[in-house]
Structures are given as structure tokens and as C-alpha cells.
Amino acid sequence: MIKKEMIAMLLAGGQGSRLGVLTADVAKPAVSFGGKYRIIDFPLSNCINSGIDTVGVLTQYQPLRLNTHIGIGIPWDLDRNNGGVTVLPPYEKSANSEWYTGTANAIYQNMRYIDTYNPDYVLILSGDHIYKMDYEVMLDFHKENHADVTIATMPVPLEEASRFGIVIADEEKKILEFEEKPKNPRSNLASMGIYIFSWPVLKKALIEMKDQSSCDFGKHIIPYCFEHENRMFAYEYNGYWKDVGTLGSYWEANMELIDLIPEFNLYEEYWKIYTKCDTIEPQYIAPEAYVERCIIGEAAEIYGTVINSVIGPNVRIGRGTVIRDSIIMKDTVIGEDATIDKSIVAENCQLGDGVVLGIGEAAPNKLNASIYSFGLVTIGEDSVIPDRVKIGKNTAISGVTEEKDYPDGVLASGEVIIKAGESK
């Protein structure tokens, strides 16, 4: 086995519970984004664009679609005999079988995989952020400073800082203090959850902290390294980075793609985002259709009006239907004369004729007001909405629904329909 200078470990096991019904049956990194991509395409593309050809992808929650999407890594040029991409689910050991209980525990359970490549450095990544970053530049910074640990950081508004791990650094960017989600943050330099460790340092920390319950980088490994006087530095990143962890931020990040000059450009020649593409026919926009400021996926058929929306591959939109400010994911069929405003419709849904999404005034969601907010209508995968029902804002639907599920043909703002057997 050839020794690798740096390998990447990509944490992609999270459920992403703040995305509600969107992640009932699929891991957050496998959720569609920008029409043709999935969220995990971004860190994977960053790896190959940065010259990293060995990536371990740690999966756990609902891994099937993620595994199918990654396959042997062909879209990212990661189908290598030596290195490449390896999917690393939890596995049964002779003594016991154990789920990954935290981000660092997942890495601890795969130390043998890392040792196979005997790397000098290990890059830890999260599978659920939208950004472009050259990890090679970050590695150069790590080496120049003779660092043991480098944390990628970015400035955030001070009022949001308590949501992040916060670092306090000197002029040389040496970390003086690290606080995980402080109540009263004293700095606005937030950890992005991207770390480069010198492998011997990480290995020692993982072994020492292995008995911590839910062993986590922010709560355990970083404080441990800090206490043991390792050289720790903050690499400041100032590009586009979006944690699409809530329905609002997920919707917003998709909508930003269709700005006239998007802040995040998917089409740069020198830093491409790669994805697994099905070989399907081109999109069809009918003569009577009207499309303005949209992303439209391959094999989509548009017979109605679509404005300021992201439409996935193989979506069919019927005559007389008007869609605004919405995300419609692949393989969804929408009938005729429907009106859809500010909605997220997941993959493989069927919406009947005359359906109206996003009516009336917003009201707090009765199931979970912190998840189903932002005035959105959210419809989970494989859902069916019958003809001519009207659905209010801050609502969630999952499953095959029937007319009798809608009193007087309406689901009021803040209400939820989750059919038996469906996960919330």
C-alpha cells in the first residue's frame, strides 16, 4: 500500500433531524440540492479538486441512497486501486457490535482504515455543508505553522456565534482558547467542523478519549488537544459556506443559486462540482409554458408556469400550474391548474390537479415549530396529495394522503399529516 500524505474522513452518518420529513428516509448528505446534486457532492468534489484521492465516507443513518450515489466513486474520479473512496458503515466486531456514537467515536472505530495508508495528516470533513474549499491551501497553512491541529474557521455575526464552536486566536492565528457553543461568545471566529490533524496527535487523542460517551470533536477531542498543549491554529476561510441544517437555510441556499449573479457559482470551469448523473433525455418546455429565473433538471417536462424555483430531474408540471419560490425534487409529478408557493416537495411525490400549497397567514407548527417554520410547506418523499386540496404555511405532510385527511379540503397553517409508519 502506497503511503498517503493526507487522507480525508467524511462524516456522513447524520440524520439531519432539523430537516424534518425531508430526512425521514434518507441521510442528510444524500438530500438533493440545486436540482441535480446531492449535498455530499460538495465535500467529495472539494477533495478531488484539492488533490486528495483517498476518502473514507462514514455512514450510519439510512445509508442506502448514499451508498448507491457514491458507488465506487466514478463521478469524482475516486475509483482508484490505491485509495479512492471507501464507504465505512458501522460493522460487527468479534466482541460486540457498536453504532457510531459521536463524530470522534466514528473515526476511532476506523483507525485501522486510516493506518492502512499511514498518512502524515488526516482531514476531517462534515458531509452536510455547501461550499468550495481548497484543502491543499489549508494543509500548506498547517505545515507552515508546524501545527498539530488546524481548525478551519470563518467569521460569523456575533449574535449567531453561540451556535458554533468559537476560537480565540492571536495575530499569528495560534489558538489561545476554544469554547464549544458558548452562551456569551467572546469572539466571532466560528469552527466550520473542518479539521486537519497530524495523524499521531489525532490517534493519541482518540485512544485517550475512547471511553467518553458520544465522543465528539468539538466537545472532547479539540479540548483534549488544547489541554495537552498541542500547537493549534485557526485557518480563516472567507468564501461561501452554508450549513443547510434547517429547512429555512436549505430553501435559502437553493434560492441563492438562481440569483442573476449567484453568490455560489455551480458552473466554474476550474472548480467543478461532480455528481452521479443518470443518462436521461433532455428537458422539455412546452410552447405554452413560461419559465423565469429557474434551474430545470434533465428530463423535466414543463407545461405550466415556473418562476424563481429549482426543479429536479424527471419532474412533470401540468398545464395551468403555477410554481413560485419552490424546490421540487426529482421524479415528482404535479397535476394541472395547481398553485405552489414557497414549498419544498421531496422526491417521487404526486400532487393532484388544482392543489394549492402555501395559502393564508403563517401559524406556528403544532408538531415542531422550530423545524417547520419560515412560512414553508414541506412535503416528504413518496407523498401523495389528492386533487384540489389547499395547504397552509408552516405545514408538513408525509405519506399517501387521501381527501378524508383534509377537513373541508384544507390543511390549515401549522398543521401536520404524517401517516402511520412514517418517521417525523
Task: Name a few traits of the molecule.
424 residues; alpha/beta; seven-stranded parallel sheet; 8 helices; 33 strands; 28% strand
Tell me about this structure.
By secondary structure, this protein is of the alpha/beta class. Helices cover 17% and strands 28% of the residues. It has 8 helices and 33 strands. The strands form 6 sheets. Strands 1, 4, 5, 6, 8, 9, 10, 11 and 12 form a 9-stranded mixed sheet that branches. The longest helix is centred in the middle third of the chain and has 11 residues, at 217-227.
* pLDDT < 50 runs, ≥5 residues: none
- Radius of gyration, rounded? 23 Å
Largest β sheet strand count, sense and barrel closure: 9 strands, mixed
Report how far apart the termini are: 45 Å
Q: Which oligomeric form is depicted?
A: single chain
| Total count of strands | 33
What's the pLDDT, averaged over the residues?
A: 89
- Structural class by secondary-structure content: alpha/beta
SSE layout and pairings?
Blueprint: E1 6-11, E2 32-33, E3 37-38, H1 41-49, E4 54-58, H2 64-70, E5 84-88, H3 103-108, H4 111-117, E6 121-126, E7 129-131, H5 135-144, E8 149-155, E9 165-169, E10 175-180, E11 189-198, H6 199-208, H7 217-227, E12 232-236, E13 241-243, H8 247-256, E14 284-285, E15 290-292, E16 295-296, E17 301-302, E18 305-307, E19 310-311, E20 316-317, E21 322-324, E22 327-328, E23 333-334, E24 339-341, E25 343-345, E26 350-351, E27 356-359, E28 377-379, E29 384-385, E30 390-392, E31 395-398, E32 410-411, E33 416-418
Parallel strand pairs: 1-4, 1-6, 4-5, 8-12, 14-17, 15-18, 16-19, 17-20, 18-21, 19-22, 20-23, 21-24, 22-25, 23-26, 24-27, 25-28, 26-29, 27-30, 28-31, 30-32, 31-33
Antiparallel strand pairs: 2-3, 6-11, 7-13, 8-11, 9-10, 9-11
